[in-house]
Amino acid sequence: MGVDGASGPDEFGRLLVALRRGAGLSQEQLAHLAGISVRALADMERGRTRGPQRGTVQALCEALRVEPSAAGELERAAAAGRPRGERTGGSPARHPLALPRDLHDFTARRRSLDGLRSLVAAAAAAHPPVVVVCGQPGLGKTAFAVHAAHSLAPFFPDGQFALDLHGMDMEPADPCEALARLLRALGVADRGIPPGTEDRSGLLRSILAERRVLLLLDNAGNEAQVRPLLPATGHSLTIVTSRNALAGLEAVHRTELSVLRREEAVELLTRIVGPERVSAEAQAARDLADLCGNLPLAVRIVGQRLAARPGERLRKLVGLLAQEERRLDALQAGGLQVRAAFALSYRRLGPSARTVFRRASLAAGKDFGPATAALLAGLSSAEAARCAEELTDAGLLQPHPSEERYRFHDLLRLFAEERAVTEDGPETCAAARDLTARWMLRRATAAALRFDADRHQDTHDGDPDPATAPADRDQARTWLETERDEWLSALKLAHATGHHQEVVDAAEAMHWFSDLNQHWGLWAEVFTSAVESSRALGSRHDEAVHLNYLAWAHNNCRYDHTAALQTAELALTAAREIADTLQTGWALGYAAGALQRLGRIDEAIGRLREAAACLEGQTSANGRLAELTVLNTLGNNLRDVGRAEEALAVHRRSEAICRTGMPGQSTDLVAAYHAVALAETGRDLAALRRWAEAEEPLRRAVTNFERARMAAWSEPARLDLGRVLRHLNHLDEARDFLRAADDALGGLNSPRQAEASAELVELDRMRTTQGR
User: Fold this and answer.
1) CA 400 to CA 200: how far, in whole Å?
2) What's the average model confidence in pLDDT over 699-717?
């Protein structure tokens, strides 16, 4: 079809409107068919965009299905509106800042790309969007930005421009020179470029206000380098990539890339080396992704290396990367090197931040706080915290979302360890580890003593820094839970280096706290170290004590009942040798617990009766606690063999002791033992099918255990209460209790989770039968 009456500077817009209406399309329909935004189309029709690129014109002509003559007329009108350098031969604009080549094997990042598209579609002329793409080295920020720029090109018919700001170089690009390069690319002659940064920035803003362009400012070093290059108004898009967070840039949109998911990393590897090789060694491909930490740069290097060696097996490279000391050496292919990428960011840090980066890699846990970093680096906590934030902004540490803690990507930790050995030396690293471990073990011991029944809770005795010590039990528990990797490593180091009394003291302090966290498997390690240190010290008493603790850990944390029985027998021998009645009673009780779990119930009951007789004459507070423990366990065994009435009598006796109280013991501790007796009483009543009577003691037990934050005790009691409520036909409440118990017992790795699951199945059957 032909179009008449088109002339003047708005010729392209009038032609386009006529063609669209002739095709019977709305703006929305044409924009969708042509792959451009409605806003871009509207600007073209209104004459705001007078010279769209040839690719955009071709897309419009294909969507409109116009005849060649009309297409040519539309292209001539577009060419007339383009800057002088873009008109010749009908070709797209040529300039020295063209986008780099897009990667045909670019993988993942769909959500981030969709977010950019939505941002462009919703952008207003008064606030041209600026997107900062940041994250740690090796995430593929530039690859993402280039891919995004190519995919968004149709939305920006006045051109796409890419400028490397060399932010990681020793001499980053000067903003004034960067402005000159941009202005030249936009068609401004050298004589028209002002001499000063401020004037150049103003000229850039005035040009961009009238055009729809995409600016890719790659590898920015800081905010001052970027600010003069940003448009103030108009419909342009600016994408800035940086290893730094550029937190000082106002009113920007942030796209923080993360490592790939494992399946995405395998997909990238597949696109590089081919599906045949990956499918032939699928597990090796997954292992390679894991060893690369799913870091895009590392995965690409692995892929490029394999692509260059088509006969090499994936499994061979897995074996090489599995050796931590050689992993960074292996992660290079030609000019691509993971180590070099990390080194660029490391060199830009200040001296203190470099020290924190190196030394923090010596931390024992998966993450660490400022106090650990300060000890390892020999800095104040405040200085270490400031450095940790600097490292986070540089993409070298990953911050915890809700706590002041940090962690390394696996490959960055290896790089930091390398730098520590090279720059600090093994002796300095060992000294830093030792100083930190001694401090951590002293704090752990002092914090755990807050849970000791024989001590005041408000003491700071032995803490290496009372000014920052946990203020109460809740804070002590939080510290012990958060720093458990550090203090456990410190305990092992103290044992290995011969500081045996410190090991015994720490383990003794921990034994009350361990009751609150029975699901931690580490208690067997703690008490094994204490047993060995007791032997090294020649203390038969300490050996008996910690053998008993170890028997408890095997029974209740590791569920290794054979080991528990063997350990309890060793404790019994040691206790009888030194005529320690209290430890003899404990050893008999722990042996009975193991025998019961091994199905040797009659033997267990015999041991428990012997233990009860041994402890009955004890008058100390600890002796009474031991007696309570033995009585409760005896009652359990009696119930298990169908003697629930006898069990109920024993547990009522335990309740009576708790109600009487124990002088010298804390109210909280007595309440915890009382809760145990209540729970067992409820179970006895349930075994006797006295459901209504069982409900009240079990409810009280659950409440008291929760108040004491004793999850290992509250969740089994919750399960038993749910079962009682089911028998009482309180099905909705029973379901709530059983569901909560099922989830929690799974998290505690408790064998009773199977009971909770079975109860839920039975509950569903009952509800179906009753039509509920």
Assistant:
1) 42
2) 92
